[in-house]
Amino acid sequence: MVEPANPDLSIGKQCKLLSISRSSFYYQPKGETALNLMLMRQIDEQFLETPFFGVRQMTWHLRNDGHLVNEKRIRRLMRLMGLMPIYQKPNTSRAAKGHKTYPYLLRGLRVTRPNQVWAADITYLPMRRGFLYLVAIMDWHTRKVLAWRISNTLEADFCVEALNEAIHRFGPPEIMNTDQGSQFTSFAWTDRLRRSSVRISMDGKGRFLDNIFVERLWRSLKYECVYLHAWETGSEAKVGVGKWIEFYNRKRPHAALGGKPPAVVYWLRKDKTQTDQQEQRVA
């Protein structure tokens, strides 16, 4: 997909056109053993079922499945994956020292229209010989995935790239909700939101359910796509995730939306909201 020797387009420009970060193009499998990668896959699957499992419970679970592991190894692997139980936020959800955090604004709020509230989160993607990270931005009301990016690091850049795309394509939301991870408390992320007059909302520490709709998205994505494949490269992962998200947005029936796909409901309700607002201004 990317042609390093292309005389007209630099690698950076090609990555931008393909909506992938430069880091995912240069992706090299992480240096973990096959055993550790297998354990990480099992940890990821179990964590979707029991997000309250801490290091001790996860270690016991793996031992009960016949794996001779200790807590030290499982703690390191869970941290590498960005997983910690719901009463302890993961590495992906720790604010960096000196970063400002914001209050949770959604408690008691009726979300009744598209672009009223967006949510963003990061998840771990297992590969055949390594792993990547995926960020997605979702419209809270319609569950539509507005933008996403894959990266091989947990730096804030790939999150900001996804945010820029979502705002460019759909306009800014009224509220953006995330956890308190360093990516979402970074200056680059919060400054982009403030410059777009977006109110910033952050989950309470250990509040797994505050961003429940994105957590459900991860569960569907992994069981319906990620766990069915063993991608070798970042490009393969990008194509596979992209196809599933296109299917999810445009064709996959959603129970919360009366069986309609998220993208269909998003555009219908967005058009209705705009019509209602125009009628109110005329009146």
Structure report:
- The protein contains eleven helices and five strands, in the order αααααβββαβααβααα.
- A hairpin with a 4-residue loop joins β1 (117-126) and β2 (131-139).
- The N and C termini lie far apart (53 Å).
- It has helices at residues 11-17, 22-25, 34-49, 55-64, 71-81, 157-170, 182-185, 187-195, 212-224, 234-250, 262-282, and strands at 117-126, 131-139, 145-151, 175-178, 199-202.
- Strands 3-2-1-4-5 form a five-stranded mixed beta sheet, sandwiched between helices.
- α4 (55-64) packs across α5 (71-81).
- The chain folds into two domains: 11-92, no CATH class; 117-272, Nucleotidyltransferase, domain 5, CATH 3.30.420.
- The chain is globular, with a radius of gyration of 19 Å.
- By secondary structure, the protein is α/β, with parallel strands linked by helices.
